[in-house]
Amino acid sequence: MKEFDIIKNYFLSRSYQRKDVQLGIGDDCALTTVPEGQQLVTTTDTLAESVHFPKGTSGRAVAHKALSVNLSDLAAMGAEPAWISLSLSIPEYDEAWLRDFSLCLQELTDYYSIQLIGGDTVQGPLSITITAQGFVPQGQALMRSKAKPGDWIYVTGTLGDAGLGLELLQTEKAAEPMHRNYLINRLNFPSPRLMVGTTLRRLATTCIDLSDGLKSDVQHILFASQTGAVINVEQLPLSEAMLATVGKDEGIRYALTAGDDYELLFTVSEEQKGSLEVALANCNVSATCIGRINGVQEKLELQRGDKPYQLPETGFQHFS
Amino acid sequence: MKEFDIIKNYFLSRSYQRKDVQLGIGDDCALTTVPEGQQLVTTTDTLAESVHFPKGTSGRAVAHKALSVNLSDLAAMGAEPAWISLSLSIPEYDEAWLRDFSLCLQELTDYYSIQLIGGDTVQGPLSITITAQGFVPQGQALMRSKAKPGDWIYVTGTLGDAGLGLELLQTEKAAEPMHRNYLINRLNFPSPRLMVGTTLRRLATTCIDLSDGLKSDVQHILFASQTGAVINVEQLPLSEAMLATVGKDEGIRYALTAGDDYELLFTVSEEQKGSLEVALANCNVSATCIGRINGVQEKLELQRGDKPYQLPETGFQHFS
User: Fold this and answer.
1) How many domains does chain A have?
2) pLDDT over threshold 70, residue B255
3) What is the dihedral of CA B253, B254, B260, B263, to 10 degrees?
4) Which residue of A has its CA nearest to B136?
5) Contact A228/A296 with Cβ under 8 angstroms?
6) Do B175 and B135 form a contact (C-beta atoms < 8 A)?
7) Which of A100, A130, B120, B238 is the most exposed, fewest CB within 10 Å of its CB?
8) A12 touching B, CB under 8 A?
9) pLDDT for A274
């Protein structure tokens, strides 16, 4: 299986073709052009078996997740995706797994109009590194550092589902089959919020994607912007499956600390709040206001209603 | 060691800063701009321990090699390097190894004026994936597909040294200390031929870097250009260390089949041959004419002097 030729056999013929790619897979490098007036946006994420996803995860789920976590980073900058490079480490030549993986990657790259422009394969423990690139109009990228006291804090979708899904996979915890299915799908098939990201470009002051858990990720904004925040945990958006399986109190803990949500957290000024809510109505993704930025440097204050909220000590196992 | 913070602790403060990088490490993505009139050139290579380098290779050598094999691909397109993303999988937190690795990476990125713009770290078997990007003026990239019958075939430097170096490391084969040192350094510290690459832009018809071995790599050009080639093995450039250690006959076999040379192989038309030799005189790297392209599709003919040359069957172990 030296050098596999896996990229060639499984990915080359199937990749979506873009006009801004002058030379794709098959030479020493790819050649591409960035449209005038656009900045290039680049992110790299590695997913390793048993670290970022449980052993036994299907090729389809691994492909979906490996691409989605990268696209989620692009979404958090307000970028639209363009190209990816793939480095695939696989322990053995497993035809069925590779077919699964490559077909899913092909479907997704077609769906998002992304071209696979290069890659490498190596024999080793299962691990996938993707470098994803996209564009954002000059000066319109969403960064972490521009939050101002008074800005409102929003999150997309519902929180904590992936963390509970992982718990269901790895413990005896029970859930109704329909809910179980939903929660495990939220773990394995995250949806990068690309359309929300581009919609936020001229409206939000900061944006970040939630990968480690809300409580931990919001700190990146507080640190970069040198601000504090108050979050009202009563407002945290919880799915029906979450509420039915563990109830609200436990749900809040998942929402605050469980990873792998790949929802966006963003801030918006008082003046833009109305325009933002109108713009997001077209995105088909809910966005919930959960708190507000203040001037207390790097301090995150949690409230439930009008009382301080203390997060119970017990943590959740999660991949991230 | 969750998420390590290795990128931050070891790489962030030390990275070379470029003007075309508007946002480096520390947000969801990096933001960069490609100069007007330039194409973006992208390559990804993964090096895994025991596959691409022997167990026990120093952090310095691993960093050097991981970066160099990527830069060698950029050189083969005639590109100048700009940015890299790094994904690092390490089995445990080894302070000394990481210091070695990151210091070498810093020295090299400084030397080549490259900025590290992103990355990821994960706990796992030692493996390094780098995505390297650079620029080439619109339409001037060197591809594999433009060789024409009558073009001359050149290689830079000397061939087979890295393969012999690996043999010295892994077997009882003896060499004089000075030669041994030279050959092992050729394995661990390849020199990407970036200046040769940019010099070749308007002169060469094709270019490729030698990673799997001359005999195997030249086929990529024959396949892409739909041509054949005659190579005179008598002309293959062999180092003094190679000749002193194994002699000419054995040296030719290393030069043809051993991998990891990271020299450039390129073709040039009869008309440009003179200009090319003048231009290369400024590059401080030797280039040797070893054969000629012909019209016999995808067939590589080896000669020694005016007789056909038959490569002995015994192969060499090599990493690539």
Assistant:
1) 2
2) yes
3) -80
4) A31
5) yes
6) no
7) A100
8) no
9) 94
Residue A10's pLDDT band, with cuts at 50, 70 and 90, is: confident
* Rounded Cα gap, residues A101 and A191, in angstroms: 17
Token pair, residue A72, equals 């989620």
Place of tokens 């040769």: B196
Q: Is the pLDDT of residue A293 over 80?
A: yes
Claim to verify: residue A113 and residue A186 sit in the same structural domain: no
CB A82 within 8 A of CB A134: yes
Token pair belonging to A57:
């995860």
Model confidence at A316: pLDDT above 60:
no
Among the partner residues A26, A29, A138, nearest to B41 by beta-carbon distance: A29
B43 to A28: CB separation less than 8 angstroms, yes or no: yes
Domain assignment of residue B145, yes or no = no
pLDDT of residue A247: 97
Q: Which residues of B touch A127 (CB under 8 A)?
A: 89, 122, 124, 127
Choose one of A137, A167, A184: the last residue of a domain: A137
Residue B315 is assigned to a structural domain of this protein? no
Taking CB atoms and an 8 Å cutoff, what residues of chain A touch B87? 44-46, 87, 129
Counts for chain B of helices (H) and strands (E), in that order? 9, 13
pLDDT value of position A317: 47
Enclosing domain of residue B33:
6-137
CA distances from B319 to A3, A284, A299, B282, B306 (A): 10, 50, 51, 32, 33
CATH of the domain at A125: 3.30.1330.10
Please indicate, yes or no, if residue B129 is contained in any of the structural domains: yes
For residue B53, what is the DSSP state?
A: B
- According to the 3-state scheme, what is the secondary structure of chain A? CCCCCHHHHHHHCCCCCCCCEEECECECCEEECCCCCEEEEEEEEEEEECCCECCCCCHHHHHHHHHHHHHHHHHHCCCEEEEEEEEEEECCCCHHHHHHHHHHHHHHHHHHCCEEEEEEEEECCCEEEEEEEEEEECCCCCCCCCCCCCCEEEEECCCCHHHHHHHHHHCCCCCCHHHHHHHHHHHHCCCCCHHHHHHHCCCEEEEEECCCCHHHHHHHHHHHHCCEEEEEHHHCCCCHHHHHHHHHHHHHHHHHHCCCCCCEEEEECHHHHHHHHHHHCCCCCCEEEEEEEECCCCCEEEEECCEECCCCCCCCCCCC
